[in-house]
Write a structure and sequence with these properties.
The chain has helices at about 1-10, 15-25, 30-35, 40-65, 75-100, 105-110, 115-125, 130-150, 160-185, 190-210, 220-245, 250-255, 260-270, 275-309. The chain is mainly α and about 300 residues long.
Length: about 300
């Protein structure tokens, strides 16, 4: 009994779920770069979401009791549709930004999304901003800036205002998506399936309006399949589960690890070495989550003391 309870707690812990998710996300940049050499962004989105729909459809047909849908209200369906919209917008806007501005610039602006997660959590989930959360966000953002600029802020030159706006809007979209998903209390598997369906329909619309349908080569299909697994199938499941059992602000702190994990993958796959600035940036990012956890522990201790007094 105690063993099963421990396993259940581990399966809900963000300290277990988020590191696995970040390892998956860390591989996305390199794989995307390879795939985008043969397919445009609309084709990548179409196949990525299409594979996700097929995989989830196979799972839900076996696992899900569809009669539970009768208990869903229109408001709950609208919430899921909104989540699908913002999930699609994040990918679409970020890929469009990458087409217009340098990758470093797009990534720098896109990594504002943990801040937007915390900002939107205040009105949507009534989470309170305390000094520890603020310090955690600042440390994570400072580490991201240091990581992307190598300590030379002047190296960041804005080259295209449209691309910059698109990258920032992508970050806003993910901040909204994260907080809206956390509001969903319905079956996780069915919810994820419908979110993916909405994103696929929008991707199909974008493909037929702005691009054309092209069958990918086997190697490109393999790359898109991996992106679908990392971003949608496994990625959504781990991210949603972490959000269901943890504050959005804590998950936001974990997402600051994304550029560091990506850099580690590049170092391992391309044999590049970490610089001193990379190490300092990593230290800031790595310390941001414990700072917030420490704040939560101290806050709980202060409340207990107030009750006892």
């Amino acid at each position: 009994m105690q063993v099963s309870q421990t396993k259940s707690e581990l399966s809900r812990s963000p300290y277990v779920l988020m590191p696995i998710l970040l390892l998956l996300w860390g591989s996305v940049a390199a794989v995307s770069k390879l795939v985008l050499g043969q397919l445009d962004s609309y084709q990548v989105l179409f196949y990525m979401n299409g594979i996700g729909v097929v995989v989830f459809a196979g799972i839900v047909l076996v696992k899900v009791r569809w009669r539970t849908l009768r208990l869903w209200s229109w408001r709950q369906m609208a919430l899921i549709a909104s989540c699908g919209l913002f999930a699609f917008l994040y990918d679409a806007l970020y890929l469009q930004a990458l087409d217009r501005i340098p990758a470093v610039e797009a990534s720098m602006l896109n990594y504002l999304f943990p801040i937007f997660i915390v900002i939107f959590a205040i009105p949507i989930h009534k989470e309170k901003m305390n000094r520890y959360k603020l310090l955690s966000v600042f440390m994570g953002f400072a580490g991201t800036v240091l990581l992307m600029t190598k300590g030379d802020i002047s190296s960041m030159k804005l080259t295209n205002w449209i691309g910059d706006v698109l990258a920032i809007l992508a970050a806003v979209s993910w901040g909204l998506f994260t907080n809206l998903v956390k509001k969903n209390k319905q079956d996780m598997l069915i919810s994820t399936f419908f979110i993916t369906v909405v994103a696929f329909v929008l991707s199909a619309g974008g493909l037929f309006v702005y691009s054309n349908l092209m069958l990918p080569r086997l190697v490109d299909f393999g790359g898109v399949f991996w992106l679908s697994m990392c971003n949608i199938v496994l990625g959504f499941f781990l991210y949603f589960r972490a959000l269901r059992y943890s504050p959005a602000s804590l998950i936001a702190s974990f997402t600051f690890f994304t550029p560091f994990v990506t850099l580690v993958f590049i170092m391992l796959l391309l044999d590049e070495r970490l610089t001193l600035m990379d190490g300092l940036a990593a230290l800031l990012i790595l310390c941001s989550v414990p700072v917030q956890k420490l704040g939560s522990m101290l806050g709980s201790g202060e409340k207990k003391e107030e009750v006892l007094s």
